[in-house]
Amino acid sequence: MKLYIKNMVCIRCKVVVSQELKKLSIPYKTIELGEVETIGDVSASQLAYLKLSLMDFGLDILYDRKSLLIEKIKNVIVELVHYEEHPIKLNFSDYLSEKLNHSYTYMANVFSDSVGVNIEHYIIVHKIERVKELLVYDQLSLTEISYKLQYSSVAHLCNQFKKITGLTPTHFKKQKERTNEFVYN
Hints:
This protein is α+β, with helices and mostly antiparallel strands. Helices cover 64% and strands 9% of the residues. The chain has helices spanning 11-23, 44-55, 65-83, 92-100, 104-115, 119-137, 142-148, 154-165, 169-184; strands at residues 2-6, 28-32, 35-38, 60-62.
């Protein structure tokens, strides 16, 4: 049986879901971002207890098709931006359509109607969050970050970064370094 979990977007979420399934003695085959495949069926009472326990962690079980699709779109974006090591060869709309077996237009309409922002904006926000992480870790240059996140240029990355955060990447990094100096001194 497949269960779809809302807001399950990181490794820690997978650990939480695994622990809750074990507490409720619900055996499972796999846990992926936003999705759990159980071994056999889950009783209505187990499902109700699981739903309640997941709510304590900001997670929820999804039942309707549109909510499932939105969560799948979000999970594909999170996986691609935060966890994928190699750039995709397709443009994102084709990649998403291929991955989820829906037309991009349909998914874009459902997403923007429910979430209140379009898919492109959601992607940009996640890309900027990833840029922030990479800047703080200080392992890649802006040129390397722009390539890794498939920006057409460093200037394009900097423009989007400033539009979303109000800061340039360099100013953001200096601000974080100053904050860390105060924490460690």
